[in-house]
Amino acid sequence: MELTTKLIEEELGEKEGEFIRELKPVLNTQIPKADNWRSYEINEKASTITLSEILQ
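Below the sequence we write its predicted structure tokens.
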């Protein structure tokens, strides 16, 4: 992979991780860690949430 492409991928991954950590989308089961966006913490609530809970 070209260096420019790798740098863009890194920046996008970091920004996506920031977005997910800040907003915690209800259906995101994987929350990227702040120190390494390629590793995740599991959002247990997202893996068990029901449609009625989302719509409340």
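The two ends are 45 Å apart (CA to CA).
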